[in-house]
Write a structure and sequence with these properties.
With about 160 residues, this protein is mainly α. The protein folds into 2 domains: about 5-110, no CATH class; about 130-164, no CATH class. Helices cover about 45% and strands about 10% of the residues. A hairpin with a 2-residue loop joins β3 and β4. α3 (about 60-70) packs across α4 (about 75-100) and α4 (about 75-100) crosses α5. The termini are far apart. Residues about 1-10 have low confidence and may be disordered.
Length: about 160
């Protein structure tokens, strides 16, 4: 049920009424995308438009489109589906170029999609062949005890003091 557009101040632009409806759901009226608007949103995502540009074309702000995504899960799903289709298309083109012998496409695909790197492990926590250094600090001791330690004479250390 559409009402007067003046009652919804949270959007800075006049909504494109071909895609957007003002609906009274009990409290303050809010904008909702109709079926055509959801299809248009998916098309814009598939065409690679940014959310800010898509919001502008629907006649609303980025905050407005975010609110619609929260209010209408089908709108968020349509956006995600459009982005996924764009990713699939770009991935297919990249694979085709790589298989046709384009070395740059092969390198980019290997890095971006397969996680390959030119140098080093991809896992920052991987140990691999990295040298591990362990530093051990000697307990407090006198110069004489230190000299004995260096010479290889055994001394006992208890609670920070040396015992002979």
């Amino acid at each position: 049920m559409a009402t007067d557009l003046e009652h919804v101040p949270k959007f800075r632009r006049a909504p494109n009424l071909k895609f957007v409806e003002l609906v009274q759901t009990g409290g303050q009226p809010s904008y909702w995308l109709n079926e055509e608007g959801i299809a248009e949103l998916e098309r814009m995502a598939r065409d690679g438009l940014d959310r800010v540009t898509a919001a502008k074309r629907l006649g609303m702000s980025l905050d407005g489109i975010r609110a619609i995504f929260k209010r209408q899960p089908e709108a968020a799903e349509a956006w995600a589906a459009g982005v996924a289709e764009l990713g699939d298309e770009m991935g297919n083109r990249l694979i085709e170029a790589s298989r046709a012998g384009n070395l740059s496409a092969t390198i980019f695909f290997s890095k971006a999609w397969l996680g390959k790197r030119e140098v080093g492990p991809t896992d920052p926590n991987a140990q691999g062949n990295a040298s591990q250094v362990q530093i051990v600090f000697a307990p407090k001791m006198s110069d004489d005890d230190f000299a004995k330690l260096i010479e290889g004479t055994t001394i006992e250390v208890k609670q920070g003091r040396t015992e002979r």
